[in-house]
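Review form for a predicted model. The reviewer records the input and the model, then writes brief findings.
Reviewer: anonymous (R2)
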Amino acid sequence: MTHPLLDPAPLTAARFAEIEDRVARLLGTRQDVVIMQGEALLPLEGALRGTAGPGTTALNVITGPYGQTFGDWLRDCGATVIDLAVPFRTAVTARQIREAFAEHPEIDLVSLVHAEAATGNTNPVAEIGEVVRAHGALFHLDAVASIGAEPVLPDAWGVDLCVIGAQKAMGGPAGVSAVSVSERAWARMAANPSAPRRSYLSLLDWKERWIDGGRRALPHAPAQLEMLALEACVARIEADGLEAVMARHRSAARAMRAGAVALGGGLEPYVHDAADAAPVATTLRVPPQVVAAEVVSRALVREPGLPLAAGGGVLAGEMIRVNHYGVDATVAAVRGCVAAVGTALRQAGLVVDVEAAVRAVDAGWR
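Model under review:
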């Protein structure tokens, strides 16, 4: 007996290329787009290892945990790494990037995370891109969390390596990802003796065996189900309209922030300035007398399906994360999160106003 999930029809090279073209249109890019058969850490690491090595001086911007990981990869490549770390409650500025260039004119690569879902901040990539382009450095961008929630425009922003994943605002699978690659980035990889070759991390292998061959023969068997799911989520965004999808995420973030403020009880947005807050997720700081992980546990007992999580690592004690992305970018999901968190805080002995918070959510959404 056949089953559509267990016995899928073969995915042809032509259909694979068509999905790549649709992803390129989503990004508004004329760069080469490579869809990689793994979670977004695969192209993120592959892009850095392909373009960095001994002799590279990289500016690694840290606004959350992923920036720390990228710095580790760059050092492992043999690059000289200059970390620019800012408090996780804020965003980096173009001025800070410019000052780093002035202090270290030898910088030839910049690595940045657009939106940090783990900490709830987002960085002004358009402004930063202008500074990076003027300096002449290669620009590596993690847009995994931001794609679908806010504009991601690699060509307009001068991004040479723009990595996206489908599992957050796009509402798709986690097991497939993509990267747009500029001509400058391809040239850097080709000239880099440290770039992975004949490796699952190798972007050069995709260029030589797939792109340069006219995208007629796939280098290896594709992950069929993940590719079909990616195609479906891109089709859904095309049908709804990217602007409408991004508007839902903006509304969710605005409503969640308004509800948290109205709830009271010492709960406050973790990212201080609303302009620095990512539309993909809202992070909240709990008052010192309660533990965030315990609040989340109580809330999920009440409503198990809510997109709530405690902060990772040391942030588990103080941070609640509301992941209002993809199918959860709805007023119902935000309203449910506010009510459940408020009830959990009330159970912990805090004075909160759940009714006012839900009204604030509705007003913020509108």
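Findings: The first strand starts at residue 32 and ends at 36.
Further findings: The chain has a mean pLDDT of 96.
Recommendation: see findings above.
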